[in-house]
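Quarterly update from the structural biology core.
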Amino acid sequence: MSLPALVATILVAGLITFSSRAMFLLRDAPSFSRWIGRFLDAFPVALFVSLAVVQGVAPGGEIEVGPSLAALLAGAITAVFTRRVPVIMVVGWLSAVLVRALS
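Predicted structure, tokenized:
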């Protein structure tokens, strides 16, 4: 990666990080409270999903069918119905354990 591309990547990552934190400061502002509140309610789940998808679908850079993909799918289906992170994590873990035991 060239130096300008690296600097641009770091700056964009910093801007995204700062923006996501600044949203929490604006949450109580009367003109922003409705739409920012809705965003922040979904933000932790979206962050968890974005981190989990990469490891579940392509941990080595290529799509891999196995326990992590089973956990990801089970967690995604559970998220649609419950929207509770602890329940999603337990269901995902149990499905990964089950697939490992069966394979």
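The chain has one domain: 3-102.
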